[in-house]
């Protein structure tokens, strides 16, 4: 204990010695924040975007993420990305630039920036790894955007999300309406459409295409949400299997149409509107995607993405975390391995049952193979532990670690494929 104290005193003397070359090297992140704040305040003078950055807070989150909060007058998503890119680049230069050893500090694992409006509502939050930060430091904004995580709540971004969701729902409904009406009446499918609705849609179709064809499926492209709702309700027997109930369908379509009116007039779309659209998206499209996958490829992609993230996150929570003193305790290890094996089995089953986009087939099947291999390895480890075969268990553990690395590699490839 005395020896430890002598070392600590020695370090203290080195820090008090102004001639020591390593004077600032051992300064923790928490103590470098004031210097970073001064640097950011001065940076406004040379900002490439001519921004006077109003930094209101700099703090360390969860001991690993360095967060800079600032207030901005910008409201457009692209403008905020330019500003945040500058701030992330400055933070990277401050902590990652090894050119001058005297300005090297303890380095946070991640860099993050929160952009707020004048009311201090969050507009955008970006978190970047060292790798992503290096890209923006070199001026490679595209790679930085690809490798960073964005939470965007700007008005134009929310509006673009709403337009995309609504368009996907509308087009999927038009396609499935045509499919089911055609199955029922073949080329006479229009007989099942309210005459006034069909007349209006056909008139618009004829004006746009110079075609008088009354059987073309594109005629439905000139219908609106209330009209689509009426067609489905008038032919409910054909559509009942695709929706939970007639009442829920009607209520959902009315809610969707209200958001649709705001979106079509470029009115403000709120985060609650987006949450409602996510729910409507699921209600309207889930069974359509199962029965008519070619009709809603975007929904299948979105659902595949969301489901895989959930599967991987649940699996990550089940990864055994065994204390150092219990590493040699076979009983504790055995319980942990069995629990994780069960979680891997569930993840594998869920992944197999998940409907995936055609262009994601190789990636999807790759994950299934990894999970199947991992399940077998854990089964071998469990057997070796039960037989107290330490040598075989250690050999299997090496294979286990290799397979876990494959999962990490998969996560990287998966994220890149979603950009």
Question: In words, what does this structure look like?
Answer:
- The chain has 15 helices and 5 strands.
- Helix 4 runs antiparallel to helix 5 (141-147) and helix 13 runs antiparallel to helix 14.
- The model is unreliable at 1-24 (pLDDT under 50).
- It has a 5-stranded mixed β-sheet.
- It has 419 residues and is of the alpha+beta class.
- The chain has 3 domains: 19-152, GMP Synthetase, Chain A, domain 3 (2-Layer Sandwich); 158-295; 299-417, Four Helix Bundle (Hemerythrin (Met), subunit A), CATH 1.20.120.
- Strand 1 (54-61) and strand 2 (65-71) form a beta hairpin.
Strand fraction band? Answer: 5-15%
Straight-line N-to-C gap: 53 Å
Strand order of the largest sheet: 1-2-3-4-5
Q: Over the alpha carbons, how many angstroms does the gyration radius reach?
A: 29 Å
Low-confidence stretches: 1-24
- Main β-sheet, in a few words? 5 strands, mixed
Query: What is the average of the pLDDT values?
Result: 84
Shape descriptor reads: flat
How many strand elements?
A: 5
SSE layout and pairing:
Blueprint: H1 2-16, H2 29-43, E1 54-61, E2 65-71, H3 77-96, E3 110-116, E4 122-128, H4 130-137, H5 141-147, E5 149-152, H6 155-185, H7 195-209, H8 225-234, H9 236-239, H10 246-264, H11 271-291, H12 297-317, H13 330-353, H14 361-386, H15 390-417
Helix pairs in contact: 3-4, 4-5, 6-8, 6-10, 6-11, 8-10, 10-11, 12-13, 13-14, 14-15
Supply database-style keywords.
single chain, 419 residues, alpha+beta, GMP Synthetase, Chain A, domain 3, Four Helix Bundle (Hemerythrin (Met), subunit A), 3 domains, 5-stranded mixed beta sheet, 15 helices, 8% strand, flat, disordered N terminus
